[in-house]
Design a protein that fits this description.
6 helices; seven-stranded mixed sheet; alpha/beta
Length: 195
Amino acid sequence: MPQRIVLASASPRRVALLSQIGIDCEVMPSQIDEKARENEAPLDYVRRMAEEKAGSVAGLMPGRIVLGADTDVIMQSRILGKPRDKADFLEMFSLLSGSTHEVITAVSLVHGEQCSLMTSISEVSFREVSDEEMHAYWETGEPCDKAGGYAIQGQAAMFICAISGSYSGIMGLPLYETSELLRGAGIRLLQEKSE
C-alpha cells in the first residue's frame, strides 16, 4: 500500500483524481493569501500558489509528504479565478465563449527538505455560448467555486469543442505530472498484490 500523503486542498476533484491512481490522502487545506502580486505573470502566480500551499501545510506536518496544487484559467494574459458573483461569471464566460484559453495547473510536492514542482499547460476551446445558456449554467450552481467559472467534468462539457493537453490537469490535478512527483519521492504507484 503506498504511503498516505497529505493533500493541501479541500477539492473533492483532487481527492478523486488521486484515488484514481491508487493514492489515499489526508485532506488539510492550506490557509494562504491567494492574491496575485502586482505585475505577476500568470504562470509564475500558479507555480507560486502550488508551492505556498504545499509549503504551508508541510510546515504544520513535518515528516509527511505534502501535495499542493493550483489551477487557473488564463485568457488574454488575465487570470480568471473563481467568480465573485453572477456578474463576474457572465463577464468571464463572455470572454471564453467562442475562443480558446489556457488552463495552467502547477503541482508541488514537499518531502522532507525537498520541494519539487511540475506544471501542466492545456488549451480549451469553447463554442459560442448564448446569453441564455450562460444564465442557465450559472443557475446550476456549478460555476461558483471553479476557476474560470466552469468544470470540464460537469455540464460545461457541452460548451467545449476541443482540448489540447491534460484532461485531468484541466480538472485540477494533472495525473502524469503528479505521478512523476510521487515516484520521485519514492512512492510506488503500481504494486503487485502479494499472494
